[in-house]
Every structure is written in structure tokens, then in C-alpha cells.
Write a sequence for this structure.
């Protein structure tokens, strides 16, 4: 199956205009090394972070119907992968391919989908979080020793392996600190 | 009394961090292989001089604090008998060529004395390698941990760990194998971990902490773009919410040493790296000394940078050494003023973190070891406002840090992942991820492998890890020896998939396995079980399949 990205349809977003479309290949030249397959016959859509405003996606859909129009969409989500609003980019693609995709903002969660002519998506990607790409507006907050941090950490619901324990947890905790000091941050909340 | 334990009168700290790494370029299939030259040059230019500099500090009673990571790929090559033997052969050829050059340049005093300098240098390297260190450079490094050197671990094959996502078991395996290798080779539990390419993402925290790692490093913006904004910028470490200490790279020290145009290494009195007699003299003359059958660097470089034009003048080692001292004094002067200024604005002593590729010192920047030597001596003898520190030492003195969610970042061009994820190299990730996924499956399936299956599983892990080396994607991007990088990526993936297919079919070809074990013989302590997803962590893609 070969990718057909030569004349993709695009949404009108800036993100779509900035996308870089690359034909599928296995890298330059043969160089005498054993060839690698174009695809592995396993349905998948993988999203990777390139920088705060760029992602990379590759996918394969082994059982696509000949001539079926396929679309790749990228969506902002929350930390658990629930889609928020309209796609940030929409691209017409082949059954196997890889694209570099622009996204509007850093410090956000994204997920991609591959759609066919049917109602629901055929493939969904992993969720990625882009680096903020700018300094945070939040300041100070907690100052802890390793022992204190460890104790605080284990108070969090779900413990260290909780998939929800991430930036969102930190932000929630920081917002509590903000509230507790009349809109101002607590400085050195738990210093030694 | 040693200034390492003074009554804290200094204004701040300087943490010099060197990262020693080379990709695994051992090629037993050929009697001589050009890429092995990378290792030989680095031993002569960087690792031996670095050992010599540290020995000088010890001999002269100069207390020092230096942090050094040695990647497992490099460590395995340094300990490999075949490469040790070939390195000595390489030195013999270099000495013979330098002798020949002394004859050829008899009528040219400026070049003749340089040929003599190189002959002496190569003979000294041979003596040190064979007799002083008895080929055991890793043991020599470990020796200096009793004197102020802090050795830290790194990933098994220098994979850019954030790009293993979403197959994070690959990142965990890289970290686990890297730390285990460090423990076995150096006999020490590493407190720190150098993330290849300074590539950080928060998913790595639990893997590092599970291995007992206390701290790591990111590039400047990894900290500066953290949430909340770090109060002391990069002049104090932070704790991530999971408890990993993260130190940020200082911009100023980085620029002064890294930049070829604005930094010290570009000084016109320093040796010109790109003018080597291997490319200047007639092939017929050089051929006996270049067994690869093609032109290559010989290490005999006769010119100084001179200026920004092709015109070059003969190198003057005494003048260059004087300039290195001057630059070292300037570097320390700037650090003193930097920490004095910062101390006025901080309620704790600032730490300036200065990480560099070790190979910069001596290989790329010939005068680098002299510079480093003088920096340490100057701080000891003159400029007491700044004190050398290791990250562990700093954390012991300052256990309380701000809690910050550190930003994903690298120290590559533009600060993120573009260097290793762009048009020239993005094709590799489909294959690397598929291989990682299959490795996860194998690790889960083979709970009680036969001895042969266990060997095949561990060799499969080695082949996958070799394919994951960030060096290959970097070379594809920079366009230097692209064919070699592409071939290495494909070969290791091919070997991995062949072993995986054999394991899946229950028919391991022992002859093939033995051949791979002999060829790609790194990471003797690798354990394929590191690829098993941990409880609570999903295998492979949490999502991403057909829905």
C-alpha cells in the first residue's frame, strides 16, 4: 500500500497550511542493508511531539477499501484524552503514511484520528502533551525537601502510577494554594 | 585544610559536567573499519588527556569536583579486547607516520617541531594506555571517584528517550540497562543520570527514580518553561512532582565554550581541526598509514585557525597553551562575577551548571584539556568566591527545592526534537516502535525461556537498543556519513526482527545467534525482562489501534 499525499485536501486552519507532507518511504537508498517493510500489517496511528507547535504522525490501516477517502484529524484534548472542540487540522491521506503537523499552541494535549467514509473514526492515536514553549505565568508555590515531597506525593489520589497524576494534578494543587491566600500564591509553603 | 569543606564563604558554585559518548562502532567483520577511528581519536585526544589532567590535580593536591557520564556503548568499547588491540595498532601507525613526518619536514622548522610534538604525544599515549592504565581506562576513571570525580550513568545506547513514546518500556529498558551497566562496570550506584541529548520528558521520572537516580539535567528552557516558573531560573535545581532533582544548563557558560564562532574554541591561535595531513599530502605517501584505503584524519594537524579565510599559518603550541590559560582565567573571572551578581538576588548560593560533550575537550578543541586544567587550578588558587561542586554535593547541602513540572526539551537545534524527527530521519520511528512493541510481547510471553531462548531474547534487546541510538538519526540529519547511519539502523532492526521471528516460531538458529553475540557484543548484563510492562502501566500503545 502506498501513501498518496501529493494533493491533500486541507482544512483552512493555519495549522493545516503549515503541515509538511512527505511521501512514505523507508529512508534514503538501499545501501546494501536489508530492506525494511513499508508497513507491518498492524492497524495503528501514532502521534509524536516534535516541538511546542509541531507533531509528527505515522499510521497504517491494512484493511482499508480501495478508493476509500481517508482523513487524518488532530484534536486538542484534556489530559485523559477527551476531545475538546473542533479539529486543529484535517488532512486527506493514504492508508499508510507519515505527516508533520502544526498545532496552534504549546502546553496542550492532542490526539489524532483516522477517518474513513463511515461515521466513526477508524483509528485513534495516543495522547501527547506538547511542551509549553514559554515561561509559565505561575510562580513560586511549593518548596519541599525530598522527604516532604515524597510524603506530599503519596497523598495524591492514585499514587505515583496514577495516569491522572501529572501537570493537571500540579495545577489543581496550585489552584488550591492560590485560593487559600486570597488570589496570591503562597510562597515557600512547606519550607524546612 | 581543603577548600572543599570551607565555612561556606563562597558566593556560589560551578558544576562542570562532561558527557562522554560514542556510538557502538565495533566492527569485527573487517580487519580495519573507518568508523572505529572515532574511538581511537577520542582515546588519544580526550580520554587519556582527561585522565592525565585529573592525575595532575591529585598529584598537586588540587581538590576538584567534576561530574562525568560514560555511556555504556563507549564503556563497552573501551573494555573490548579487540578494540584495545586495534587501538594499539592505530597508535603504532600514528607513531610511524609522525616519524616519517619528522623526516619529511626536516627543512621546515615550523612543521618539524609539530611532527615531533605529535610523535611524542602518540608515544606518550601508547605508554599511558599500555603501561600506566594497562588498557583499563574505565578502572582509571573509577579510581578518580575517590578524589572528586562523580561518575553518573546514561542510557544503554544513547537513545533519545522521549521519542520512544508511546512505547515507554523501551525507555525504561534503556535506563535500567544503563544503570545496571554502570553498577557492574564501576562498582558504584550512580546518583545522577545523563539523558542522551539532554532529552527530557516527564514520563521518564518514575523509571529514573526506580533505579535510585537522584538527579538529571535539562537544557535551559527545560527549567525556564517549567510550571510554575522556577524562582531561581537555572541557578538552583528543582524537584519534579515525583521527586527527581533536575539541574538546568547555564546559557552563558555554554556559549563561551560551545560556540565555534563566539566561544573560546574559535580563537585564531587554536589548532585548526579541519586541516589534517590525511587530506593534504599525496595518497601514495599516506597509504601505508591509512589501512582503510581512503583518506582520513591522521591526527597530525599543522595549522592554527588563523582567521576566517582559507589561508592558514603554522600552529604554535606554546602560544595556544598560553591562550588556553588566558581563556580559563576569563572563564573563571566571569563565573565569579556571575555568582556574585546572582547571590545578591538570591536567598541561597547559586549553582552554575556547565555541561559539555567530553569529546569537545581535546578532540574538537585541542586545547580544551589545558583550559579545563587551568579552570580548576584557578578556582582553587585564586578565585574563592566560586566553588566547584557536583550535583550530589549541592543536593546534600541544599535539600529543599522548588517543585516544578519540567518541560520536555533537548539541547539540540531549536531546543526540542526536530533534529532527530524531521524529513531525513522520521522514517525510522515506525520501525523502532514496531520493534519495541514486539520486544514487549516477547518479554511478556517468555516467562521461563530455555537458556538458548534467553540468549536470543537478550540479543534481541541489544539489537533493538543499538537501532535506537540517537547517533544514527543525528547523522542522517547532519548529512555526514548518512549511508553508514542508515545501514546501521536497518541492520540492527533486521537482526532484531529475525531473532523475534525465530523466537515466535520456537526455532532459534544458534549459529545465527552466536554470530550476532560475537558481533554486537555490548551490554553483557542486559536483561530482556526490562521490556515487560509494569503493573499499572499499559503495554505498548494505550490507544492507537483500530477502534
Amino acid at each position: 500500500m502506498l501513501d498518496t499525499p501529493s494533493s491533500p485536501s486541507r482544512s483552512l486552519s493555519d495549522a493545516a497550511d503549515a503541515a509538511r507532507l512527505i511521501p512514505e518511504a523507508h529512508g534514503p537508498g538501499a545501501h546494501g542493508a536489508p530492506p525494511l517493510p513499508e508497513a507491518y500489517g498492524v492497524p495503528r496511528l501514532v502521534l509524536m511531539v516534535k516541538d511546542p507547535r509541531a507533531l509528527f504522525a505515522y499510521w497504517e490501516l491494512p484493511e482499508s477499501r480501495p478508493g476509500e477517502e481517508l482523513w487524518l484529524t488532530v484534536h486538542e484534548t484534556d489530559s485523559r484524552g477527551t476531545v475538546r472542540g473542533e479539529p486543529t487540522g484535517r488532512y486527506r491521506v493514504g492508508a499508510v503514511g507519515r505527516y508533520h503537523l502544526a498545532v496552534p499552541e504549546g502546553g496542550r494535549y492532542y490526539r489524532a484520528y483516522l477517518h474513513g467514509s463511515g461515521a466513526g473514526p477508524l483509528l485513534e492515536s495516543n495522547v501527547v502533551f506538547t511542551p509549553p514553549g514559554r515561561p509559565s505565568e505561575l510562580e513560586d508555590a511549593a518548596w519541599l525537601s525530598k522527604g516532604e515531597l515524597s510524603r506530599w506525593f503519596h497523598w495524591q489520589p492514585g499514587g505515583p502510577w496514577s495516569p491522572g497524576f501529572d501537570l493537571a494534578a500540579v495545577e489543581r494543587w496550585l489552584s488550591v494554594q492560590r485560593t487559600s491566600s486570597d488570589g496570591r500564591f503562597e510562597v515557600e509553603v512547606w519550607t524546612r | 585544610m581543603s577548600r572543599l569543606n570551607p565555612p561556606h564563604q563562597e558566593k556560589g558554585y560551578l558544576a562542570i559536567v562532561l558527557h562522554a559518548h560514542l556510538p557502538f562502532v565495533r566492527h569485527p567483520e573487517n580487519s580495519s573499519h573507518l568508523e572505529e577511528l572515532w574511538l581511537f581519536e577520542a582515546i588519544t585526544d580526550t580520554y587519556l588527556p582527561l585522565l592525565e589532567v585529573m592525575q595532575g590535580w591529585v598529584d598537586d593536591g588540587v581538590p576538584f569536583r567534576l561530574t562525568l557520564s560514560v555511556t555504556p556503548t563507549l564503556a563497552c568499547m573501551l573494555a573490548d579486547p579487540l578494540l584495545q588491540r586495534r587501538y594499539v595498532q592505530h597508535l603504532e601507525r600514528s607513531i610511524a607516520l609522525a616519524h616519517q613526518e619528522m623526516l619529511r619536514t626536516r627543512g621546515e622548522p615550523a612543521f618539524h617541531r609539530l611532527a615531533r610534538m605529535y610523535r611524542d604525544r602518540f608515544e606518550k599515549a601508547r605508554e599511558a594506555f599500555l603501561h600506566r592504565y594497562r588498557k583499563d581506562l574505565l578502572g582509571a576513571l573509577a579510581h578518580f571517584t575517590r578524589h572528586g570525580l562523580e561518575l553518573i550513568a546514561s542510557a544503554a545506547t544513547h537513545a533519545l528517550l522521549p521519542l520512544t513514546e508511546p512505547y515507554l518500556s523501551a525507555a525504561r529498558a534503556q535506563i535500567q540497562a544503563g544503570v545496571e551497566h554502570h553498577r557492574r562496570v564501576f562498582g558504584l550506584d550512580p546518583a545522577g543520570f545523563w539523558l542522551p541529548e539532554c532529552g527530557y520528558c516527564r514520563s521518564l521520572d518514575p523509571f529514573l527514580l526506580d533505579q535510585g537516580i537522584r538527579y538529571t539535567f535539562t537544557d535551559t528552557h527545560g527549567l525556564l518553561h517549567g510550571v510554575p516558573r522556577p524562582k531561581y531560573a537555572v541557578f538552583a535545581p528543582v524537584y519534579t512532582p515525583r521527586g527527581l532533582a533536575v539541574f538546568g544548563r547555564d546559557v552563558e557558560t555554554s556559549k563561551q565554550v560551545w560556540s565555534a564562532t563566539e566561544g573560546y574554541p574559535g580563537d585564531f591561535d587554536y589548532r585548526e581541526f579541519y586541516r589534517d595531513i590525511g587530506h593534504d599530502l599525496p595518497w601514495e605517501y599516506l597509504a601505508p598509514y591509512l589501512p582503510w584505503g581512503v583518506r582520513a584524519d591522521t591526527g597530525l594537524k599543522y595549522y592554527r585557525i588563523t582567521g576566517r579565510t582559507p589561508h592558514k599559518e603554522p600552529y604554535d603550541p606554546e602560544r595556544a597553551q598560553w591562550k588556553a590559560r588566558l581563556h580559563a582565567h576569563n572563564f573563571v573571572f566571569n563565573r565569579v562575577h556571575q555568582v556574585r551578581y546572582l547571590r545578591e538576588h538570591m536567598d541561597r548560593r547559586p549553582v552554575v551548571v556547565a555541561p559539555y560533550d567530553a569529546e569537545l575537550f581535546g578532540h574538537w578543541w585541542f586545547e580544551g584539556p589545558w583550559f579545563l586544567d587551568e579552570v580548576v587550578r584557578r578556582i582553587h588558587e585564586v578565585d574563592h568566591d566560586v566553588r566547584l561542586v557536583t550535583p550530589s554535593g549541592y543536593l546534600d547541602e541544599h535539600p529543599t527545592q522548588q517543585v516544578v513540572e519540567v518541560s520536555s526539551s533537548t539541547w539540540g537545534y531549536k531546543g526540542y526534537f526536530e533534529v532527530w524527527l524531521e524529513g531525513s530521519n522520521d522514517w525510522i520511528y515506525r520501525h523502532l516502535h514496531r520493534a519495541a512493541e514486539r520486544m514487549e510481547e516477547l518479554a511478556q510471553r517468555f516467562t521461563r525461556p530455555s537458556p538458548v531462548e534467553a540468549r536470543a531474547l537478550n540479543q534481541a534487546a541489544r539489537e533493538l537498543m543499538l537501532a535506537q541510538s540517537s547517533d544514527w538519526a543525528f547523522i542522517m540529519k547532519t548529512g555526514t556519513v548518512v549511508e553508514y547511519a542508515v545501514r546501521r539502523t536497518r541492520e540492527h532492526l533486521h537482526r532484531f526482527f529475525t531473532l523475534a521471528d525465530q523466537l515466535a516460531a520456537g526455532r532459534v538458529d544458534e549459529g545465527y545467534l552466536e554470530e550476532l553475540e560475537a558481533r554486537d557484543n555490548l551490554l553483557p548484563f542486559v536483561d530482556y525482562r526490562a521490556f515487560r510492562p509494569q503493573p499499572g502501566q499499559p503495554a505498548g500503545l494505550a490507544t492507537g489501534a483500530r477502534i
Remarks:
- The beta strands of chain B are 12-20, 66-70, 149-154, 192-194, 215-218, 238-239, 245-248, 351-357, 386-388, 400-403.
- Chain B has two domains: 13-79+136-271+315-414, 423-531.
